[in-house]
Amino acid sequence: MPLSGEIPSAVRYLVPGAVASLAAFAFSRVMIEPLIGIAVDYEGQRELVESELTGEHGHGHELFARAVQENVGAAVGIVVFGIVMGVLFAVAHTVMRTALERRGFAPDPTGLALLLSAGMFVAIAFVPSLKYPANPPTVGLDETTGVRSSTFLTMTALSVVAACIAVAAGLALARQWGAWRASAFAAGGYAAVMLGVATVLPSFYEVPAPIAGPDGLLLDGFPAEVLADFRVYTTLNQALMWLMIGVVTAVLMAAWRRVEKESASFV
C-alpha cells in the first residue's frame, strides 16, 4: 500500500496534533494552572517584601489578566505547539517508514506510530528536561533568561540530532547484528552522547531563597513541593501529548486501512 494512499494529508498532519493539544490543555488547566497561580501569588508577596526592605515600590501591571492568560493564552499556545509537533511527527513517521521499507522491513504503521511517538517524547521533551526542568514563575533570574533559553534549545537540538543519528546507525547495523543488538547499541550511544552534552552545558540553580530582615525571617523560600509538582506535571503533560499524537495516528491508520479493505472487497 503506498504511503500517499493511507490518510488524506490534512487529516494525517493536523488531526493528531489538534486532538493531542486539546488533551494537553485540559490536563494543564486542571493540574498545572493552580500551581502557576501559587507561584504568581508567591511572586507578588516576594516583590512586596523586597520593596519594603529597599523602600522602592514598583508599579508594574500585567498586560493581560490571569483569567485571560490561563484560559485564552494557554489554550492558544498549547494548541499551536501541539499542531506543530503533530506535523513534525507525521513527517518523521513517513520518513521512518520509507527508510524501513527500503531496507526490506515491513513495519506495522500503527505500531510504528506508537513507538515513534515514545521516541520523540524522549528526545524532544524528557531528556532535555532532565538537565533543564520546567520552572514556574518566580523560579529563575530575569538576567539569565536568554542564556537559559539558548542552552535549553541547544540541549533539545542536540538531543534530536543524536536521536536521528542513533536511529540511522541502528537501521544500518540491524541486518548484521540483529534488531535487538542494533537497537541496544543505538540507545546506548544516544545515552552516552547526551550524558556528555549534559555534563558540558551549564547548570542553573536559581530557586528563590528565604528573605530575612532585621527582625528575622520575612518570607520563606519558594515552596519545594510546588516546584516538584510543577516539574512532574509538566513532564506528564508532554508525555500525554506525545501519547495522544501516537494513539490518534495509529487509530486513524487502522481505520483507514479497514475502509480501504472494505472498499476493495466491493470492487
Descriptive account of the structure:
- The chain is mainly α and 267 residues long.
- The chain is elongated.
- The chain has a two-stranded antiparallel ribbon.
- Strand 1 and strand 2 (216-219) form a beta hairpin.
- The protein is built from six helices and two strands, in the order H-H-H-H-H-E-E-H.
- The two termini are 16 Å apart.
- It has helices spanning 9-54, 66-102, 109-131, 145-177, 179-200, 224-265, and strands spanning 211-213, 216-219.
- The longest helix is centred in the N-terminal third of the chain and has 46 residues, at 9-54.
- Helix 3 (109-131) runs antiparallel to helix 6 (224-265).
- What is the typical, i.e. mean, pLDDT? 87
Shape: elongated
User: Going across the major beta sheet, what is the strand order?
Assistant: 1-2
Radius of gyration, Cα only, in angstroms?
23 Å
Helix and strand sequence: HHHHHEEH
Structural class: mainly alpha
Number of DSSP-assigned strands: 2
Largest sheet: 2 strands, antiparallel
First CA to last CA: what distance? 16 Å
Quick tags:
mainly alpha, 2 strands, 267 residues, 76% helix, 3% strand, 6 helices, two-stranded antiparallel ribbon
List the helices and strands and how they pair.
Blueprint: H1 9-54, H2 66-102, H3 109-131, H4 145-177, H5 179-200, E1 211-213, E2 216-219, H6 224-265
Antiparallel strand pairs: 1-2
